[in-house]
Amino acid sequence: MNQYGEVFENEDLKKYTTLGIGGIAKYLVKPSNEKNLIDLISYLKENNIKYYVLGNGSNVILDDSYFDGVVIRLDNLKEITFDSNTVTAAAGVMLPMLVNVCLQKSFISLAFASMIPGTVGGSVVGNAGAYGHEIMEYVKSVKVLDSEGNIKDIPKNDISFGYRYTSLKDKYLVLSVTFILESGDPQKELLEIRERNEKRITTQPIEKKNVGSIFRNPEGTSSGKLIDELGLKGHQIGGAKVSEKHANFIVNEDNATFNDVVSLIDLIKEKVKEKYDISLVAEPTIVRWKEV
Predict the structure, then answer these.
(1) pLDDT, tens only, 73-126
(2) What fold, for 80-188?
(3) Looking at 32, 106, 164, 216, which residue is catalytic?
(4) What's the pTM value of the predicted model, to 2 decimals?
(5) Domains of the chain: which residue ranges?
(6) Of 176, 213, 223, 243, which one is the catalytic site residue?
(7) Residue 275 belongs to what H/E stretch?
(8) Is residue 283 flagged as an active site residue?
């Protein structure tokens, strides 16, 4: 597999997730470019080898058992190209990096995403959002690899999407995304980003390993408020703990396992359903290797 890029054997996946949880993967491959990625996936399918594409690991709860397959990271797919009022970013580009590059050219549309710690590919698939905006608002088209190995450009109108959801999930591998951009005052946006960052430091447990918001917000209320009202802040199962700073965050307090986190999620869902008759939906993807 060396012809496709960097190859690591028996790689510990803990260091590739913001939650600090993950097992050992038989192989981890970082394809050198888009063509190598496409060729690698074709090879894996032909040889019936299991694989999983992992973005920045910021919105995923990863099984910590052994994965007898290949984890693919898109770290080397980092190309960014501008054309008039559009920008095309490869799937491996980090969102904060894209925001910075756009602001340098006085394009402000994506400034809301400056603190979303995900890749372009993963963020578009999950329609990541913050501060009243979602990334699909600014998407023009998405270049994907389909299950048959065909490359397609899908216009935004052919993608159904909603709150933290797009129809791309589990159907396509995103290769790159083209965004439509709006011009504005980058200094004003940078000031807002700084203010938001300061607020985030005081209201979210960014000093601890976490996976961001654990639950989507139900209509008309917030998950954090419901969990807080149930007195679950600080509740702990094994090494996984409901943050005392923000109830909709679970932190890896002390070498938490996959089962610790999933058990705590299930407990919260059960308590919220019991008290409020609301079914909370987990925001991160929960990956079990037996289902890959």
Answers:
(1) 999 999 999 999 999 999 999 999 999 999 999 999 999 999 999 999 999 999
(2) 3.30.465
(3) 164
(4) 0.94
(5) 2-73, 80-188, 205-290
(6) 213
(7) helix 258-276
(8) yes
